[in-house]
Each structure stands twice: as structure tokens, then as C-alpha cells.
Amino acid sequence: MSSSSPRNTPDATPADASTLVLHDAPGNGAAPPSAPHRKTTANEPADPLQWLEELDSQRAMEWVLAQNERTESELFDADYEASRDAILRVLDATDRIPMVTKRGEHYYNFWRDAAHPKGLWQRTTWDSYQGGDPAWEVLLDVDALAAEDNVDWVFSGAQMLRPTPGSPYARALVKLSPDGGDQVRVREFDLATRAFVSGGFDLPVAKTNVSWLDGDTLYVATEVGEGSLTRSSYARTVRRLSRSQELDQAPEVFAIDESHVLAYVSHDPTPGFERDVAHDVIDFYNAKTYLRRDESWVQIEVPTDVGVSLHRSWVLFSPQTAWTRRGKTHVPGSLLLADLEEFMAGTASLREIFVPTDSSSLQSIDFTANYLLLNVLQDVSSQILVCDPSLDFALSPLEAGAPLHSFSISSVDDLDPECADDYWLTITGFLTPTTLARGTIGSAAAPGSPPRVVKGAPARFDASDFEVTQHFAVSDDGTRVPYFQVSPADLPLDGLNPVLMHGYGGFQASLTPGYVGTLGPGWLTRSTAGGRRSSYVVANIRGGGEYGPRWHRAALRENRHRAYEDFAAVARDLVARGVTSPRHLAATGRSNGGLLMGNMITGYPELFGAVSCGVPLLDMRRYTRLAAGHSWIAEYGDPDVPGDWEFIRTFSPYHRLDDALPAGTAYPASLIWSATSDDRVGPVQARKMAARMMDMGVPNVRYHESLDGGHAGASDNAASATMLATSYEFLWRNIGS
């Protein structure tokens, strides 16, 4: 599908472009008038810890290194090392499924293991891939490149130039981050010689979106001097860059207001449907999409909160709020379809492909040559629906597996006549290692084939006596909140069991069942001295996308408290059911989930024995001025707008520390962690929160900061194992005894 729009959340960069019909957008070649410069919040008090916002100043880094030493000296003992090594063995296991993307006759993969910590970009053939030990052709050894360049490169993906029909794929744009952050260098790569193109395209390190227009031309959205970035730190302008042309000499073809989030232009090379599409991402929920017609940009006229996607002759829409058109109202989260040219001419009727219910939501879509594939959630359990346009767009279920699992379906290669209706099906669950299968969608006229297992990952821990159950807690306003529980089947319900609880609750992101091999050695296989075994809980709180836009929008801005009330309700339900007690309940979350953890620390400290708060937003007065924070105003509100700070203050953990706790209430043990190179959320909010709690005399507060790894907090498997083991070890020592 063309025109997938980028997800601009704390956990996904604008270049991810990986989900359903989100907001594509754009301008008309000239920037609209600039918005007034932002003003400081009225009467903002001085922050004595603001010096910690100096990212890599000597004073700030001395504090960071001292905190790292303190945390590591306490945690990094033999038990920690055993946990870390066990987690690393899972991450480096050579019998993992090498997931692939088909391009032409090859299947491409990126692979890390102990011998290649930075990774190999490689490819193989279908016949080889089906075998037990595929023969890989290594295209790029990132470890060797890093050593040659003396730069700690992190592979951030590759974008291939689609060849003319009948020709092989020959060129790619490889993205490399120098520290694991969102900023990347983009270099042209020759697939035949397996080398970077001498004198080829080479874009300097920046937050860049790029699209091939043809073999000698790119659309580039990146930083090009003063005025080229939005206040969210992403590209405001797009240039058409020809081969051998300097970037600052390339003509500007599109621009947006600096108060918007980002601009980008993509070229759809689908034979017979070639087109250029421009995108003006206004905020996370509002955008505009434009088509290039007669050397000008023509907007696809829909409300800005209606997501737009293009596929061949079709245009698809997904409204975030109720959309009334020609007297008919389409509900939020529905999927609508029309003929693109008819819609542009104003003559199209909208066809409803999917309409959500109170218990179902559409998560993503994809296309084979002749079918539309829908990934749907029904009470947070996956369902696969196949839409057949030849049968008046009828929907039929594809049998995939058992309830309380996740299934995901996607096209293999809809432009390859030999497999145009083939699909990948992945199946996974909390206790079910991932399986990759391949099948063919068929009809009476052209029979298909059921999914056949291609690869299966082995179990990483003994889960034979564990079970997965789903429960519903009742939040403060009466809303039923689902959650998953992974526990020993014979768990005694006497409140003495150690439990780790996880949540996110933002940006319409759904937490679904999935096998996390590191969770076994890191948490589920642990037991207390008294023989009590561990459990794991995932809370599907509002703010997420488990029930579509309505579930998400219920916790936006001034309603943010509902996400935190939901998480607290699940914690209380676990206690009421006898699964655990506050003394033995730990909680973890990162990014927006780190904001959730900050609000558990400051708003519900009586419910938890320990909290791990990772790469978090915490200072909600200043978040819009730090890293990419301005891009999330639609989610949280704007502290510089009169009235918004009044409700933002109620969920700003850094400021909630000023609120006195009820007598006898103590803060839970708190590990706050981040990464110096995180250029999305940044480490400074985490630093200030930890320092403030320490200055207040709060006991058992620890801070840890990885020096690289970006927002992921880790740039390779070893760093990931360190990050995970540090969190697990801290939590276990505070609730598992």
C-alpha cells in the first residue's frame, strides 16, 4: 500500500510507516505563514535541577557517571551476571526465526548474534530459506563498517529502488545511526557489488525521511539549514535531489508550517499507478494528504483527523472521530474505501469495509494482488479477516489459532505474479514461541493453500505448568479494563506471589499477547526463598488502541488520568483476587509507559513495592521544549497554552512530587533509567526526576543511563541484555524476597 504515514510517538519515529491508515499529510510547495513564537509558561518557577538538561556538559555527565557507578556497584553481582548472561543467550540464539522481506527473487534479513553484535544485512533465496540452515549472502557487515569508519554505526534499515519489470533490484538507500538515535546517515548501496556507491547519494546525519523518485532522483525531507525544521525537530521542507547535486542546491518542492510535526513526500512506483504523494503531519491525529497533479499539489479533501491510504486505484479512509459525509455518519475506527479518481472528482460513494463493535477494533491492513487482509482484535485477541473485492468486498475469517494469541498477516509480494496472493502469517502468545507460516489466499476459480509452517522458534524456558488467563478490572468510572495474566497454573491466591505488571496506555498502541523469550530467564523462572513463583501481567489500559480510537481518545489530554486509574484498578484487582499484594507487586513501563510509571510512583505509591521507569517523559511543563516533545502536544496538551497546564500539572510526575503523600505512605523503590543518545524523549527528564527524589531524601531511588542506544536504550544485544537484567534485578530484589 502506498502512502503509509509515519507514526510519531515516543516509541516510533516518523519513518516507521508501519501501521494501518494513519495520517498522511502535506503542503503545496510553499510554506504557510509561520505561527507566533512560543512563549514561556506564565510565572514558571525556577528549576534548580535544570542544569541536568545540559545533555553532555561536564557537570551533568559527572552526575550521570556517579549514579551509574552507584547503581552498578549495588546490582551488578553474581546473580545479576547470571541473569544477564541468560538473557543474552536468548537474544543471541542462532535458532531464532530470521524474519525476511521479499524483494524480487531474494529474501532480505537483518541479523545480530554474539559473533556479529552490530549485525549483518543479508539475503537468500526462497529454496534456501525453507531449509534448516539457509545460505546467506552478506550484503553489509555493520561491525566491519563500524571498525573501518571508527563510528559505532547502528543499522536503521534500507529502502530499495523498485526496478523496471523484469529487472533485478540493484540499488538501496541504507540508513545508519551513529549512536542508535533517530538521526541517521543515508548512503546509496549497490546490491550487485555489495558496496556503497562511490560518489553516490550520501546524506549527512539528521532526522531524515527519503523516497526514491527514480534511479537518479530522491525526495529528501531533512535538515537543510535555518528554518528547515519544525518545532518538533523533524523536517519542515522537502527537496527533490538529483544525482551529484548538493543538498542545499536541490529545489524545494514542499513545505509546511513550523508548528506542525513533519513533512515528507513519497513516490509510489507501482506499475500503472505511479504517483507522488505529499504529507503534512499536523499532529499525531491530524494531517493532510496531497497528490501531485500537473506540477501542483492537490489535496485529498477529508477532515484532517481521517487517515488516508492509497492502494492502486483505491483510496482508503479511517476516521479517528465520527465522520459525516453526504448524510451518512461513519464511526471512529471504521475502514472505508472508494475509487481514487471518483473521489477526487467528487462523485465517489464510500464503501464500509469494516465497522468496529464495542469489543472489536481494526489494527492494520495489507493487500495481496486480489485481496485485502485485515488484522482485527476481539477483546484483545487476534482475528484475521480476508476481504474479497470480487465478491462485493465480502469478509471471511482466516483460521489462524487459539484465543489469547496474536496473529499477524501480511502480503509476501503482491507484484510477483508467481506469488501475488501469498501471505505471511505469524502466530505468537505469551507462552507460545513465534511461528512463521506461508499460505495463499484463493477462491473457487483460483484455489489457494492453507498456511504451511516455514519456521518455528524453540521455547526459551519451561512453561509447561504456566497458563495464560484474561481478566477485567473495573476502573474508577466503571469502565471494564482487560488484562492478561501469565502465572503458574497452581498459583496460591493468598497475596504472597511476586508479580511484574506492564503497561503503556498511549498513542493508540495496543499491547497484545506475544512471546518474549527474555521474560523467562529474566522473570518468570524466578522464585522466592519460600518457593513462591513469579507471574507477569499486561494491562490493556485506555490510551492504547485495543478497542480502537474510542479507547485511545478516552485518555487524551484532560482525560489522561483515566489511563492511570485503569492501571491502578488492575493492580487493585490483582490484590483483591489474592494474586499478590502491594509488597510483592512490581510495575514497569517505558517512554509513554515511563510517564505511566512516574504517575504510579507519585499518584499510587501505596499499590507497588517497586517500579522500573524507562526512557520516560516526566517533566510535563518542559516536555515540549525537550527533544521531540513538541510533536506529542495532541496527546498530552500544551503547557504553554493558557488552561492546559492546569490539567497537565495533574499528571506531571516531576511536579507531583510537590504533593504531600498521606501520612504513613512511602514511595516504592524506584529505578529510573534512560540513554544519553535518546534524541526522541531525551534523558534529561529522567535525570531530573531521580535527582529530585534523591534530594527529597526518598530512600531506594536509583538512576542508570546508557551512554548510547537511542530511545531503545540499547544499540546491540549485549546492551539490551544489560538494560533488561538491570531492571529485572532491581525489581526482584525489592519485591521478591
From TrEMBL:
<keyword id="KW-0645">Protease</keyword>
<dbReference type="InterPro" id="IPR001375">
    <property type="entry name" value="Peptidase_S9_cat"/>
</dbReference>
<protein>
    <submittedName>
        <fullName>Prolyl oligopeptidase</fullName>
        <ecNumber>3.4.21.26</ecNumber>
    </submittedName>
</protein>
<dbReference type="InterPro" id="IPR002470">
    <property type="entry name" value="Peptidase_S9A"/>
</dbReference>
<feature type="domain" description="Peptidase S9A N-terminal">
    <location>
        <begin position="44"/>
        <end position="260"/>
    </location>
</feature>
<dbReference type="GO" id="GO:0004252">
    <property type="term" value="F:serine-type endopeptidase activity"/>
</dbReference>
<feature type="domain" description="Peptidase S9 prolyl oligopeptidase catalytic">
    <location>
        <begin position="536"/>
        <end position="736"/>
    </location>
</feature>
<dbReference type="InterPro" id="IPR023302">
    <property type="entry name" value="Pept_S9A_N"/>
</dbReference>
<dbReference type="InterPro" id="IPR029058">
    <property type="entry name" value="AB_hydrolase_fold"/>
</dbReference>
<feature type="region of interest" description="Disordered">
    <location>
        <begin position="1"/>
        <end position="44"/>
    </location>
</feature>
<feature type="compositionally biased region" description="Polar residues">
    <location>
        <begin position="1"/>
        <end position="11"/>
    </location>
</feature>
<dbReference type="InterPro" id="IPR051167">
    <property type="entry name" value="Prolyl_oligopep/macrocyclase"/>
</dbReference>
<keyword id="KW-0720">Serine protease</keyword>
<dbReference type="Pfam" id="PF02897">
    <property type="entry name" value="Peptidase_S9_N"/>
</dbReference>
<dbReference type="Pfam" id="PF00326">
    <property type="entry name" value="Peptidase_S9"/>
</dbReference>
<keyword id="KW-0378">Hydrolase</keyword>
